[in-house]
Design goal:
This protein is of the alpha+beta class. The protein contains 4 helices and 9 strands; from the N terminus they run αααβββββββββα.
């Protein structure tokens, strides 16, 4: 007796979900290190609901004090097509194609949308994943410049990282990085811009001091 086509639909759907590649978004899913077990699910580095990323309706200014876009249409007009697709629509550039994936030039990496300093060359390392990789954000704080939120897209459990100030999608963070942090921030080149004039030592010290002052005033 032939099986109705509609009864086969759920089975085909399940198989199609299993076929989604690990590289469907920024960086591969966590995998076992040679000779070891797969990394345990990494706890979120302090996602704080009281410090959620701004919404599109909130008034914001860039690093120069100029008002930032409030709507997707305005962002689209401000950014390139690739920057808009990745930073505002949570897209992903292809591995080994981004301009910064193996760059080791000294400087500070700013958010492409608002100019906020997010990472420095001091914490950058060349990763085999094919995207720019950092071992820590510029202020070394889990609830600082970079926000982290659970991401269950593509059938995977990951942690998305965004710019705390403007909400721009940056990439994802994994617990398979090098010592001493063991963390890998896998970032899209299109979401950041290297500022070679902003010395990483000065930038890092400044952001740490700001964080200390903020906590003291809370």
């Amino acid at each position: 007796m032939p099986i109705p086509a509609r009864s086969l639909a759920p089975a085909f759907l399940a198989l199609s979900l299993l076929a989604i590649p690990a590289f469907a978004a920024d960086g591969p899913a966590q995998k076992a290190r040679p000779g070891g077990k797969a990394p345990a699910a990494r706890p979120f580095l302090g996602e704080d609901s009281t410090k959620a990323a701004p919404t599109e309706d909130e008034a914001m200014t860039d690093a120069d004090g100029n008002p930032l876009p409030k709507t997707l249409a305005e962002w689209k007009a401000r950014l390139t097509a690739e920057q808009f697709q990745i930073a505002r629509l949570k897209g992903t550039e292809r591995a080994f194609t981004g301009k910064y994936w193996k760059t080791m030039t000294k400087g500070t990496y700013r958010c492409i949308c608002c100019g906020e300093p997010l990472f420095t060359s001091k914490d950058k390392f060349v990763s085999e994943c094919g995207w720019p990789a950092f071992s820590a954000p510029i202020d070394k704080q889990a609830d600082g410049k970079v926000a982290e939120t659970p991401d269950f897209s593509f059938g995977m459990r990951r942690v998305e990282v965004t710019c705390r100030k403007c909400g721009a999608h940056l990439g994802h963070v994994f617990n398979d990085g090098p010592p001493p942090t063991g963390i890998r921030y896998c970032i899209n080149s299109a979401s950041i811009e290297l500022d070679e004039a902003f010395d990483p030592d000065t930038a890092e010290k400044s952001e740490k001091e700001k964080g200390t002052e903020k906590k003291a005033g809370e």
